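Agenda item 2: zinc ion complex prediction
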Amino acid sequence: MIIDCHGHYTTVPVAHTEWRAAQLSAWESGSAAPAYPSMGDDEIRASIEDNQLRLARERGSDLTIFSPRASAMGHHLGDIRTSTAWAQACNDLIARVVDLFPASFAGACQLPQSPGQPLDAAIDELNRCAAMGFVGCNLNPDPSGGSWTAPPLTDPYWYPLYQRLCELDLPAMVHVSASSNPAFHATGGYYLAADTAVFMQLLQGDLFTDFPTLRLVIPHGGGAVPFHWGRYRGLADMLDKPPLAEHLMRNVFFDTCVYHQPGIDLMFEVLDPANILFGSEMVGAVRGIDPTTGHYFDDTKRYVEAAAITPEVREQVYAANAIQVYPRLRQLLVP
Ligand SMILES: [Zn+2]
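Presented output:
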């Protein structure tokens, strides 16, 4: 069993994306959004079978935790009402994919967020999606799209959402959306900077003292964190925090979306494998073929296969860790 903890519906039917553009342009002009278009199951089925499902089968992963396209969440656009309607539309589409392919996908939801707004809408949508069987959510630590106007993830602002996540026993993947700041390239600059910045926010605070069962997945290999592991261990020491293993690493997990062998080898060298979840972010940020290997950059299973780890550790990273972090998967995996 191989569980890919990080997949996005990047191949949605065009009518869905067109509706979002129409919704935002209606918001700008102060008019009502058009009705959401109807889409047939065949269209949704084809958009998955020809893309994510085909690649998963070719590469050998079994189940993908599937969420709406992260770069299209666009929490910095519109307002909390447009964000709410958009999140509902995106999550409903994920639910349809899961219904069509229940053995291959489990849902993770987009949360309606908007800069400076309370998290009530996000909690409502989390509840709605949990009731639909979703196993996790994506939490945007910077809904401003690159201005970092939200408080750090350790701030009480976020606590009502954490409270509900703990009650529902759901994890959150910490995932920014598109960049509205030209100094940040979205997937090459902003995503990785956010992953790294959030880890440091968590290091500075004591969030998991207040929420000992909260689980956060920092994607893209944890940004720059594993490469600078000594820096973070040293900062924990300087800031009079417990060692990272106690302070953060019972609650924080990284995926394998680093797209080359030395990056994966480094992760296994510096991290406890209990903190590594298999992920590919496919079809996503980096879609090309690595000329030095002849394989897709995001075919991350190849790197895990080639890493110098025991079969037991490989199994742990492929499935057992994901089931620990996303316990609602257990219900889906019962034969
Ligand atoms: Zn992603």
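Discussion summary: Residues 6, 8, 70, 175, 219, 281, 284 surround zinc ion (CB under 6 Å).
Owner for follow-up: CH.
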